[in-house]
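Moderator note: this is an archived Q&A kept for reference. The question asked for a predicted structure of one protein chain; the sequence and the answer are reproduced below.
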Amino acid sequence: MIDGFIKVACGIPEIEVADCAANRARIREKIGEMERLGARLMVLPELCITGYTCGDLFWQASLLRDAKEALLLLAEETRDVDALIFAGLPMEIYGKLFNVAAALKGGKVLGLIPKRNIPAYAEFYEGRHFTPGPEEVTEILLGGERVPFGTRQMFVCETMPELKVAAEICEDLWAPVPPSAGHATAGATVIVNLSASDEMTGKDAYRRMLVSVQSASLICGYVYASAGEGESSTDLVFGGHSLIGENGVLLAEAERFCNQTISTELDIQRLAGERRRMTTYPVQDGAGYRLTGFSLKLMETSLTRDIDPKPFVPDDQGERDKRCDEILNIQAMGLKKRLAHTHCQSAVIGISGGLDSTLALLVTTRAFDKLGIEREKITAVTMPCFGTTDRTYTNACELTRCLGATLKEVDIREAVALHFRDIGHDRDSHDVTYENAQARERTQVLMDVANQAGGMVIGTGDLSELALGWATYNGDHMSMYGVNASVPKTLVRHLVRYFADTCGDEKLTAILLDVLDTPVSPELLPPEDGRISQRTEDLVGPYELHDFFLYYMLRLGFAPGKIYRLALNAFEGVYDEETIRRWLKEFYRRFFMQQFKRSCLPDGPKVGSVAVSPRGDWRMPSDACAAGWMREIEEL
């Protein structure tokens, strides 16, 4: 539960139809299994105490009596289980029969939530036995205790206040306006669904879609436990298809036809943060709901859910290719509009033979193709200086020729040396002045060449560099349109690789593959034995770590301690604790210190959910203090 995680589980017992004593024993076994998995929220299927397929036996007084007794015994038997448990049964209340979900904790029945939407079509005939449950919550006597009854109930964890649980039952989810919509907008962060959904060809895909979409639209965790083997097969078969979703993502899914128990962790803190961020999400004040408190011991939840070390890059090759093509189109269409709006017929790019300028050139050619402008009107300028190597120089030139752009070479060594003389700087002092003077000279050249051609300078800097401030202010930091501004470094590599794989030009592919194989470097220091001497990741840290930190800080607003914990999980066996802590500290230091550069960024297209444009996603004062974040890292 620390860091907002809670383990949840669905347990599907193999029931005996209408044998409540046997079902109670098997439910208890399932609860024990879920307890061993560490679950603190446990969900069992609809009507599991009696079985869903009892038919007209639901009218039998003996069955209803046995079900009530089994519920009370189950509550007592789970007194010491530190979990909120939901189990289904029929209950006679106010002279009518209701299909209810009972919430159990600490030896008590905390509430009875009735099914609101009762199906009586096709293979379903629940309307023959059950009455739709009331929304308004009243109290009934059960086992000598007053117990809330009604759909508008919410169970609030006192030790983790953001954990608010509400329930609906099977058909409720399939209805046009599910009760869960009201539950979530009233404040519930987790919805449990006790279900008995029979199997038909293709129905499993529809269930997945329902759970995924509902968890996304409500920004909630959705725990769906469906009846399985043991139900009567007179006309129907039940597969035990349980699902656990979180904000549109299915985290766990049971294999059908084997009564599998599934568990995973929900990130309640993340859900609460997403709701705070979304201004259109209603105020969650619980108005009209009966709030019942319960307590769980506060402890760290072991993580079994997948923590992706590359959150910006899809794992699946097909999905990755689709994403790459989409991003390239977004970049190109943004540039296309800017060129058309400014009546600009030419573009100028500083081409270095590195990844970022390569991507910018590829995007620019795509934009020119869409506008029907000849590629010769793209001027790619190579500007060799003190740190340029033969490898990057050759790749820059060959790439430009291969793409059909115009290559222009401006050797800036003499200009920079003259500048050093003018300002009285020792050329042998390889300090920040030595490096930045080269970057600013290159930008001056690009701007003036653009003026000559009546064009605009296309920026090459990427999102990761902007986050770290790894750009020379008014040097490569500046352009007239930054096509890579919201593309993180880990994704730049895949975009170039995608282009190499799909361009259909063997020579171009070979050049791109060599660019991909070249170490990332600004090449501002003299090479050693003809090789790159300045490797960016040796100086600022691995980009895969920084992109991971960036995603969880900006997109989800997580604290450094939680990001560190997730990074330990995601990069286990790749980086040790000290390495992750070191670069996390460097990330926060640079991110806060370099905001002034992001406050005056050129325009550039947003391609994903994380961006640092001062006009869009990220508005931060340049003088904000990082002390609180740094202290938290020091305490790790």
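Archived answer notes: The chain has 20 helices and 20 strands.
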